[in-house]
């Protein structure tokens, strides 16, 4: 069904027959909520964040396109997440349910005159958000170049996962992977540990990472398994205390940083180049499994 947020912007609510739900805002095409069949919220959202247009709430899964971070000429994580998207009516009406009981919505963002001023490339970005009959969340993005010349872009599903306490979180699947450390001028290192744990601020881009990464929340006996296609990199970020108190993180209050971890399916190190008419697809599926399965689980 459709509801409205604090600013009167439409949100689409997806539900499955088990009672799980997801909520997608037309503001940025952002998944702002994903609940399991017990109604537990699986994504982090800052309590203070009030979705002020054009600022998005801090949390959920912002879509970072056509540029992740501020490594280019555009603003932090660029503009797709600050725009108002539309429901893509060409597929079946929303929220569609298909035979397997999954519920999905198709959203569309087309480059506007305003966008072309800061990023002179005509594109269509289609996002399908799907809540499976088993409660899993799948996001499929398709970027099409409808321009007359090639363009390149980076992309990330900036996923704020809700965790009991960051010091109890382990990330598996990135062992021995090379990463760029954004806290050390993006210098390249190799992961040594058997799993990534958190004792301080971390902001890393793991390059050519495996298709499957697991985020284990020890206290809640819950593991998020992220399976990705077309997204060769993984961003792992937690601001820790000092950065979370900085001006740029004004919407992270008190010790909220302890209850979130960003593990983003992304394509950053080698941006995608599309010729006119070409299309790229980036697919992320997040599965929640009980207890501390390893990433092979
Ligand atoms: O995850 C990497 C990062 O670029 C961090 O540097 C931090 O700025 C964060 O993303 C910011 O995300 P936000 O949702 O605040 O735009």
UniProtKB/TrEMBL annotation:
GO molecular function, one term: carbohydrate binding
Catalytic activity: alpha-D-glucose 6-phosphate = beta-D-glucose 6-phosphate
Residue positions binding substrate: 58, 76, 81
Organism domain of life: Eukaryota
Top EC class of this enzyme: isomerase
GO CC annotation, single: cytoplasm
Gene Ontology BP terms: carbohydrate metabolic process
Pfam hit, one: Aldose_epim
InterPro entries recorded: Aldose_1/G6P_1-epimerase (IPR008183), G6P_1-epimerase (IPR025532), Gal_mutarotase_sf_dom (IPR011013), GH-type_carb-bd (IPR014718)
UniProt entry keywords in alphabetical sequence: Isomerase
EC number: 5.1.3.15
PANTHER family: APOSPORY-ASSOCIATED PROTEIN C-RELATED, GLUCOSE-6-PHOSPHATE 1-EPIMERASE
Family membership: Belongs to the glucose-6-phosphate 1-epimerase family.
Stated name of the protein: glucose-6-phosphate 1-epimerase
